[in-house]
Amino acid sequence: MASSTEDRRRAFIRIVLVCFLLSGIVSPTTMYADGPIDADGVIVVWGDRVLPDQPLTNLTQIAAGGYHSLGLKADGSIVAWGRNEWGQCDVPAPNTGFTAIAAGDGHSLGLKTDGSIVAWGWNLIGQCDVPSPNTSFTGIAADYEHSLGLKSDGSIVAWGWSGSGQCDVPLPNTNFTAVAAGVEHSLGLKSDGSIVAWGDNWAGQCDVPLPNTNFTAVAASEFHSLGLKSDGSIVAWGHNYYGQCDVPLPNTGFTGIAAGWRHSLGLKADGSIVAWGDNSSGRRDVPLPNTGFVAIAAGWWHSLGLKSDGSVVTWGNNWYGQCDMPSPNTDFAGIAAGDHHSLGLKTDGSIVAFYSQSAVPLPNTDFTAIAAGEWHSLGLKTDGSIAAWGDNELGQCDVPSPNTGFVAIAAGEWHSLGLKTGGSVVAWGSDWDGQCDVPSPNTGFTAIAAGWSHSLGLKTDGSILGWGYNRYGQCDVPSPNTGFTAIAAGGSYSLGVRGCAFDLGGDFNNDCRVGMLDLAVMGGGWMMDYDMADCATMGSNWLIDCNTYPFDPACVAKED
């Protein structure tokens, strides 16, 4: 049996991984599965969220959709991560030869070197049905449910939802050099430096300010528009309730623009990013150091910055303050994130709760693990009992008797799980989708995890069982269902680690790692230092030593 310190380390890593991925909007700076799905030491993900399948390095372009992100690699391939409910992250094969990318709310576009456009994801309104002939395109743009393509002859092709006329390109449809798509309006930049705007105009987002000359770039979002002038100034117009059109002074030296949902970004010639407008999700909080950026992108609730070294920085998604760490920010041994609150486990066995659910039951001592649901919290005591508090409308805080012998806990949206010393799982709370119906035989479990309405259990033989809500396949464990050593569950997706556990450091000390998990997510996520955890072991009290880097699947187990 591993020590309580090691248990906390394992719980810490699991919870941090879920904390990052649960948001869907914010993605790790460098987080990927290194190798094929069936190799040892690989993170396997299923359901409606995906991780990048390769390191976020050597990027040349970035794009931000509603709740997903795209990166174009120097080799012409596309990396996609975030929400994948409609397949917007499933880049069609062959994933080669791309020169540009664009992301809508739930769909994605890629421009090929041969001038054709590939479209995938949500297609209810035909936003992925590229009109024929699908040739001679030189630029692309996408937003809510419509797409734009710029032709080599300077004309624009538009398709998808056109309820406000956003696909009705004004005549003459010639001499365009760039395009941008808002929720229900479109922009086209002419070769003479003027902007043409069409579609929904309820907030004046199509009323280009005078003089309509000397523009070099355009950007559009929900109900506002941006234009970059040749003198490095930005012109903004349309909806301004959140200040998204109030360009900060000095309004000079800009080289790039991006428009998000109620916020705006400007890239300066010195490589810094200026952000303004709504900051309710931390999407204006550019991570430090704010230097070395060469491109920007703005999604609905998140922002992206591309560095000169080909790396990408992401920020945003802090809607409920659940990532605002309390003071003093020291001596934490574990963390957990609920939908609307956060928990921190201290090295002295006490729990810190912030934003909501802060009334930890007394005595606030002797805790070894924590878990957070939507509005409820769980704490595991050294004596094997569970303390539960918060919303109890569906019985998620009513720990079944006997409340003894527990070794692990997990919290879903409205249900709770407890793992007993004998390997059985106890489940209570909401059972609307069968998330509390533990499959038989209820024995041999070594780890548990809970999503919104589904549950996972890891067996001693390395297999995973999933039960409960399964609309997105989050309970359908990919084959081969063997060799798993750790599990985690997001809202509607699941993760499993095969073989090795993983390292959160960059020290190259031959500890086992899955890729290189550099979880330096700032502005809307937890920030982790390199030295915070070193070769966290998840399945048992073993360290896995992979004597080469990148990861060599020929790992050898050695006792800790």
Describe this structure in words.
The structure is a single chain. By secondary structure, the chain is mostly beta strands. It has 2 domains: 193 residues, Regulator of chromosome condensation 1/beta-lactamase-inhibitor protein II (Methylamine Dehydrogenase, Chain H, 7 Propeller), CATH 2.130.10.30; 253 residues, Methylamine Dehydrogenase, Chain H (7 Propeller). A 4-stranded antiparallel beta sheet has the order 2-5-4-3, with no helix packed on it. A 3-stranded antiparallel beta sheet has the order 1-37-36, with helices on one face. The longest helix is centred in the first third of the chain and has 19 residues. The N terminus and C terminus are likely disordered.
Features of this protein?
2 domains, 1 helix, 3% helix, disordered N terminus, Methylamine Dehydrogenase, Chain H, single chain, elongated, mainly beta, 560 residues
Brief write-up:
This protein is mainly beta and 560 residues long. It is 3% helix and 38% strand.
- Give the fraction of residues assigned to helices: under 10%
Strand content: 35-45%
N-end to C-end Cα span: 12 Å
At the fourth CATH level, what is the homologous superfamily of the largest domain? Regulator of chromosome condensation 1/beta-lactamase-inhibitor protein II
Radius of gyration: 25 Å
Major sheet summary line: 4 strands, antiparallel
- Shape type: elongated
CATH class annotation of the largest domain: Mainly Beta
Counting DSSP H or I runs of 4 or more residues, the number of helices is 1
Secondary structure: number of strands: 39
Task: Calculate the mean pLDDT score and round it.
Answer: 78
Give the neighbour order of strands across the main sheet: 2-5-4-3
Question: How is the CATH topology of the largest domain named?
Answer: Methylamine Dehydrogenase, Chain H
Class derived from helix and strand content: mainly beta
CATH architecture of the largest domain: 7 Propeller
